[in-house]
Amino acid sequence: MAEERRGSWFGFGFCGFGQALGSGRGRQVTSPEPLRAAGTDAEVCSVSASWSYTAFLSRERSGPIPPGPAPTCPRLLLSWLPAPAGAGQVQLSGSARGAAEGCRDAWASETLLVVLRDGRGPGAGAELQAWAPGSALCGEPLWAQTVVPEAQREDREDGEGDGTRARPLPLLPGARAYVSPLSPLYRPLAPELRARRLELGTEHALLLDEAGQVYSWGGGRHGQLGHGTLEAEPEPRLLEALQGLPMAEVAAGGWHSVCVSETGDVYTWGWNESGQLALPTRSLAEDRETVTGETTGLSGHGPGVTGTTGDEGGAPASCIALQPFPALLDLPLGSDAVKASCGSRHTAVVTSKYGQLGHGDTTSRDWPCRVEYFVDKQLQAVAVSCGPWNTYVYAVQRETS
Amino acid sequence: MQNNVLRLSWQVYLMAEDSNRDTLPGMGPLQEALRALLPRTKEELKLDLSENVHRSVLILLQQATNLFYEGRRSECLQTTEALLDYSWEKLNTGVWRDVDKDWRRVYSFSCLLKTMCLCETPGDATTVAAALKVCDMGLLMGAAILGDILSKVAAILQTHLLSGKRPAQGPAQEQPGIKKARNGHTSIPDTRSEEAVPRLHCPSLQYFRKHYLVPQRPVILEGVADHWPCMKKWSLEYIQEIAGCRTVPVEVGSRYTDEDWSQRLMTVNEFISRYILNEPKDIGYLAQHQLFDQIPELKQDIGVPDYCCLGDGEEEEITINAWFGPPGTVSPLHQDPQQNFLVQVLGRKYIRLYSPQESEALYPHDTHLLHNTSQVGPSMTFQLLPHPTPFLESRQMASLAFFRSTWRILTWRSSPGLLRPHSCPASCLLEKSCSSRLNIGIMCKPWT
């Protein structure tokens, strides 16, 4: 029988501005909590979190679930669930409040909230609007531009089939340009790039093209570009280290980058100061050193940072501060990854069996660590979206067979 | 009847006032001294910030200030932690000199509140030391706020820590650990007299300008710093006493062109214990740090050479850096963008200079970060470069070495001595840029 296999969103992390994150009690939530969406008929379909506020995009509840067994692989699962159609509502929570109708997509940053809205009037193309977060989406946007109708048509042809949003912000429909929180807001992209997805870090940008190749540009002082140097790149440059390996996902954090291949491998590069690359980092190794004789509660999943040699001066030689080339990650139990998202200094990856992060404490970890909450509650993570200091996960109840 | 009521309400008022001020039993002189630095009301504790600082951050700043004045210490700590982390991210975005000063001021303000919160409850020396560390972070990474309040806080905390401390152990000079240089015996080439940098004894300003400053020629000026107190007072022991508990940036690694070179923060005591004494396993160097701005007590021991007034900039623009490290290290050949005056206080340094005409032969790195540094190591220069022009060997104390920005500098330590360029690789936490025209270097190291 067809169970109600609707998914729901969970959140954990920093909520010091009262942004909706589960119960929203206190300044941070260390274990996943179900999100309370305002409005009962609407279903939150995507989340874009900035540091002090979160933008939720919700649409009318979609139709009945098709009969038959549901696929277990998250990528197929997402497309199997009936995709909400049409525009929906954007709701803001946290330091910015307000809501707006007729929205197809939203992207949140501290200085700017970018919304893709249905055009006003019949037959009009969609409109891209940039708002000051404090404006509560009232009055006039700081900047607005009509999206060229051809671009919209292209998008519909390409993307609709699999139910995922074809070209999410900050990539603009038609993939001819993207929007940036810093001036200039509108930035053109060479059409040859055939961008499928674009992600912005604090100082860099990552682009995934139709063929699964990754490009990067911007500041490179922490190795976040992945070209093997610390030099900046003014224009999109192909990541040669990954050439020929088709990638399915890219994600950009504050100063690090992650991508997931079509075969489920995860690659990370950039700054590892908090262990966000899932590689050993000196600061955490030194913290572990000072905890003498105490089992630090590591699960067997980690690569097992072995006890240091008692050298009080140095950390183990294998610690990595900067990783300027992509490094292949070993996920626990040989899992394959499906989606990735990056915060300012953390990384979350959804594997085909588990979702990661949110362990009930505030300790940093420099190895991939499973979020037990979802396992305990028989939930399967399907999508993840990281704000700078928090994580939102969309998960579906597992079928009890 | 009336009098009783009055008396009662007066007593209530007194109690209310006490709880506002959070007077806990045992609130000692430390807490009082710190509180005295802050304004009475929260409205007065304000920063004027530009619109570059996000509205959300202003909200948190207000919240943190309110919480502090309401005595809600642990909540205040949570809020300031968020402010510290967020402003830290801003400080790590882009090039250091382009970081908006307001973000540095937000960082300083957060350090101030955190330091105050940590000291609110009577704690042991560890708590005060932790508070001083936070205070130092604000001084190192932030920008001056509220009449340079962090310096005043640091002075109070340091006094409090020292009053409880035993005097520093043992005389510095007798330590056996420092006798053994890490790299073993490093040979120094002979200096031939005709190639040595000329030495003058206290030339007049005009003479110096005409013959050395304008034509860009290096010179050693003798007798200029003889009377500086540091020449008599400074020793390892003294430094530990005056500045031991202060946090400073230390460069770890043989040379900054190496891959495993990094910068770390530690107290001066930790630095001395780990990298100067006790047969250090790594090279650690307190290099190019404006120590005298951070620790004014040390600044009182040094002077500023009169010759510095011949520069184009204002006196406030003169940057004074300290270099403090163990023997046996080598600095790659590099160029400084500013003129330098160098004073060697303790120890010996070997310096070699190449004229601008030799630049072609010096193989600078082609990366942006290291474009002022040669790829050629010191041992190779003897063979490759045909005209190594004036050597400078600063054996004597109290000599002042001057060299202009266009000369290339190679330094070689037989004993201590390392000269850094002013721009460090970006992976450092504390990349600073000097905007002054003249740059004084002070070196202090133990004798081998």
TrEMBL record, chain A:
Residue stretches of each RCC repeat: 212-263, 264-353
Listed InterPro entries: RCC1/BLIP-II (IPR009091), RCC1_domain-containing (IPR052830), Reg_chr_condens (IPR000408)
Family matches, as Pfam families: RCC1
Span of the signal peptide: none
Domain of life according to the entry: Eukaryota
Database matches in PROSITE patterns: RCC1_2 (PS00626), RCC1_3 (PS50012)
Region (Disordered): 150-169
Protein's UniProt name: RCC1 domain-containing protein 1 isoform X3
Organism this protein belongs to: Phyllostomus discolor (pale spear-nosed bat)
This protein's encoding gene: RCCD1
Automatic annotation (TrEMBL), chain B:
Keyword rRNA-binding listed: no
Superkingdom, taxonomy of origin: Eukaryota
Entry coiled-coil feature ranges: none
Protein name according to UniProt: Bifunctional peptidase and arginyl-hydroxylase JMJD5
Any GO BP: rhythmic process
Cofactor(s), names only, from the UniProt record: Fe(2+)
Uppermost EC category: oxidoreductase
Natural source organism: Phyllostomus discolor (pale spear-nosed bat)
One Gene Ontology term, aspect cellular component: nucleus
Subcellular location: Nucleus
GO molecular function: chromatin binding; histone H3K36 demethylase activity; metal ion binding; peptidyl-arginine 3-dioxygenase activity
Region (Disordered) location: 166-193
UniProt keyword annotations, A-Z: Biological rhythms, Cell cycle, Chromatin regulator, Dioxygenase, Iron, Metal-binding, Nucleus, Oxidoreductase, Transcription, Transcription regulation
Catalytic activity: L-arginyl-[protein] + 2-oxoglutarate + O2 = (3R)-3-hydroxy-L-arginyl-[protein] + succinate + CO2
Keyword DNA-binding: no
